[in-house]
Write a structure and sequence with these properties.
This protein is α/β, with parallel strands linked by helices. 40% of the residues lie in helices and 20% in strands. The chain contains 16 helices and 22 strands. Helix 2 packs across helix 8. The mean pLDDT is 97. Bound molecules: nicotinamide-adenine-dinucleotide and the ligand N[C@@H](CC=O)C(=O)O. The ligand N[C@@H](CC=O)C(=O)O binds next to loops. This is Succinate-semialdehyde dehydrogenase/glutarate-semialdehyde dehydrogenase. Keywords: Oxidoreductase. One of its GO terms (molecular function) is succinate-semialdehyde dehydrogenase (NAD+) activity.
């Protein structure tokens, strides 16, 4: 266990399973280790939920469901608001924990602490604005009452890269809608989610609300723990954020019970620099779009498509900026870029760079791991990358920027859309006509025009094609936890 975390935080940090308002050990007492990506040192041993623990958690969510859906929307909203306030008040602690388990720099972790908390604030406000409709039927014979009910107990499976925000982006709308939840955080970084769950647990307790509204089952045996839930008729909803491969397999399992599903999956975002772009702005945008969380973001720019006239200059300037960055443990002062999540992530990124160079790409910056403990990879710029290189076709999930030149707008759009993914896309142009065309034709659920960042709790986050189903955030996010019932009066 590590000293960069405050003793007060460590002493109150749960490391067990949360089932029906109680933290406890896993059946059989199994635990797994959570390591610091900056050093490889073990931070905590966490309870390793078995399938029977997951079933207990679902039973608690199911039993709490009638009371929670009957809890007035205002009270549900006030609970979320209180948790938001508590997380913001403890943003430094939350950030320290995010850095410890995910590696990101303290500044980025603090940004995530506020961004993650903001989902709770937004859904505190949405809880009292759930949609509905009453009208006279067109034939005039009767009235139609269309109301929205909570869909029922939900399984929320989250990734490690934004351990707070990916959890609150699901918990906020689920609770606002009146659904009870079982959260399964990623075993590489489960602790921040557990901290939020503890704040929720204590707020529920203080307000006399049902204990089983929020349950958490960290586990290193994800499939074994979640498969029985997907086959259990008490579960009515699966919301998953993670890779497309795992999402596809969960969709197959969810089909057996025709579960409601939301899927936030992988991406391969193009970052287009048009010939009329403001190059200074494009470089700034590229730094954010590529290097947020060291490139380990689903919306990270994966391919830089730059007009022939700017490609060399863009790549050179980006390489200079990358070379000037200071790599190191995210908790250290003055560090710009933290480690990747684990050694396997470094291996994967290195293999993508090796594939590109074997196909003729040149390394303008980086292109190697850092010779020190921890999972560090130098921020890398590649030029002369062909569209068939793995680095251009697969989700990199690391600090590598392949630059690909294009000749005209048609080619840029065709290259951008030449992927099975459709999560985010970015484009820099000073032409309104070009911006309008890109907004129409890019096949992505989120498009940043002259912006390297699209994430916002109040906006619909989600993808087209194999990047997912449904939306999180904004007004749309709560819809994922509601079903429609029509009463003919
Ligand atoms: N679209 C989005 O909003 C979004 C956001 C964040 C991350 N992501 C994607 O997530 C991926 C990175 O995260 P990751 O490595 O944690 O993804 P992952 O798919 O490996 O794991 C995601 C979650 O699923 C669990 N899991 C893995 N295999 C499982 C199985 N067979 N059954 C049940 N659960 C299983 C993991 O333990 C984790 O909790 C990237 O592809 C990234 O693009 C997408
Ligand atoms: N980076 C995303 C989540 C995906 O990784 C966000 O901004 O919410």
């Amino acid at each position: 266990m590590v000293t960069a975390l405050s003793p007060a935080l460590v002493s109150h940090l749960p490391t067990g399973l949360l089932v029906d308002g109680h933290w406890g050990p896993a059946t059989g007492g199994r635990t797994f280790e959570v390591a610091d990506p900056a050093t490889g040192d073990v931070l905590f041993d966490v309870a390793d939920a078995a399938p029977e623990d997951a079933r207990r958690a679902l039973a608690a969510a199911h039993d709490a469901a009638p009371a929670w859906r009957a809890t007035p929307p205002r009270e549900r909203g006030e609970l979320l608001r209180a948790v938001y306030e508590r997380l913001v008040a403890r943003a430094d602690d939350v950030a320290a924990l995010i850095t410890a388990e995910s590696g990101k720099t303290r500044a980025e972790a603090r940004a995530e602490a506020l961004y993650g908390a903001d989902f709770l604030r937004w859904y505190a406000e949405e809880a009292v604005r759930l949609p509905g409709l009453a009208r006279t039927a067109p034939g005039g014979a009767n009235r139609q009452l269309v109301h929205r009910r909570p869909i029922g107990p939900a399984l929320l499976i989250t990734p490690w890269n934004f351990p707070l925000a990916m959890a609150t982006r699901k918990i906020g709308p689920a609770l606002a809608a009146g659904c009870c939840v079982v959260v399964k955080p990623a075993h590489l970084a489960p602790l921040t989610t557990m901290l939020v769950a503890e704040v929720l647990r204590s707020e529920l307790e203080e307000r006399g609300l049902p204990a089983g509204v929020v349950n958490v089952v960290p586990t290193s045996r994800s499939a074994a723990a979640t498969s029985p839930l997907l086959a259990d008729p008490r579960l009515r909803k699966l919301s998953f954020t993670g890779s497309t491969a795992v999402g596809r397999s969960l969709l197959e399992q969810a089909a057996a019970q025709v579960l409601g599903v939301s899927m936030e999956l992988g991406g391969n975002a193009p970052f287009i620099v048009m010939p009329d772009a403001d190059l200074d702005a494009a470089i700034e945008g590229a730094m954010v779009a590529k290097l947020r969380n060291a490139g380990q973001s689903c919306v990270a720019a994966n391919r830089f498509l730059v007009h022939d006239s700017l490609a060399r200059q863009f790549a050179r300037r980006l390489a200079e900026r990358f070379d000037a960055l200071r790599l190191g443990p995210g908790a250290d002062d003055g560090v710009d870029l933290g480690p990747l999540i684990d050694p396997a992530a470094v291996e994967k990124v290195d293999a993508l760079v090796a594939d590109a160079t074997a196909r003729g790409a040149q390394v303008l910056a980086g292109g190697e791991r850092l010779a020190r403990p921890g999972s560090f990879y130098r921020p890398t710029v590649l030029t002369g990358v062909g569209p068939d290189a793995r680095v251009a076709r697969e989700e990199v999930f690391g600090p590598v920027a392949p630059v690909i030149a294009f000749a005209d707008d048609d080619e840029a759009i065709a290259l951008a859309n030449d992927t099975e993914y459709g999560l985010a896309a970015y484009a820099y142009t000073t032409s309104l006509a070009r911006a309008a065309r890109l907004g129409d034709e890019l096949e992505a659920g989120m498009i940043g025009l002259n912006r390297g960042m699209v994430s916002d709790a109040s906006a619909p986050f989600g993808g087209l094609k194999q990047s997912g189903l449904g939306r999180e955030g904004g007004e749309a996010g709560v819809e994922e936890y509601l079903e429609t019932v029509y009463v003919a009066l």
